Amino acid sequence: MEKGNQGKENQLHTDFEKEMSYGDYLQLDKILTSQHLLSDHHDEMLFIVIHQASELWMKLAIHELTAATDCIMDNNLEPSFKMLSRVSRIQQQLTQSWSVLSTLTPSEYMEFRDKLGHSSGFQSYQNRLIEFALGSKNSKMLSVYQHDEKLMQIMQTALHAPSIYDAAIGALSHKGLHIDEDVLNRDYSEPYQHNKSVEDAWLTVYQNVGQYWDLYELGEKLSDIGSQQQIWRFNHMTTVERIIGHKQGTGGSSGVTYLKRVLDQGFFPEIWSLRTRL
Question: Which residue in 20, 70, 196, 221 has the fewest CB atoms around it within 10 Å?
Answer without folding.
Answer: 20
